[in-house]
Here is the input.
Amino acid sequence: MKFFNMFHLIIISFFLLSCGKSPLLKELSKEATQITSMEVSKTFQVTSQKVQINWMTPINSIEEGRAIILLTKEGTVFEDQEYELNAYLWMKSMGHGSSPIVITKLAKGIYQLSEIYFTMTGDWQLHLTLNKNNKVIEDLEFEYFLTL
Here is the structure.
């Protein structure tokens, strides 16, 4: 009888562990793990700079988001030195944002955004602003919607 029970235990273990991650062992999370819409390109009208967002991490509420921003004009990297680039997250439906986004200039017209935290499911806006003399000259809104 002990042999029979041990045999069943071995067989069950084999099926649970042999085929990758078993759905029986999956840890369920109530965090947003997928995005249903994602904007990645817009143009600042003031400078005619095309803004391309290249996400380096998945967009979710589980981990820190990181992205590379590329500013181009007529197909080449272009940055108007007259303006400063800023970024922030906003959740319009809830009336709040998230922690400040860290912007690091990597080269002319190339920026890294880090510490982007989508803190819950729902509709989010990533705002990229062009500022001059500490005033917002233009604001681009990139729309994102996170679901479970």
Q: What stands out?
A: Residues 131 and 137 are 5 Å apart (CA to CA). Residues 11-30 have pLDDT under 50 and may be disordered. Helices lie at 2-18. The chain is about 10% helix and 50% strand.
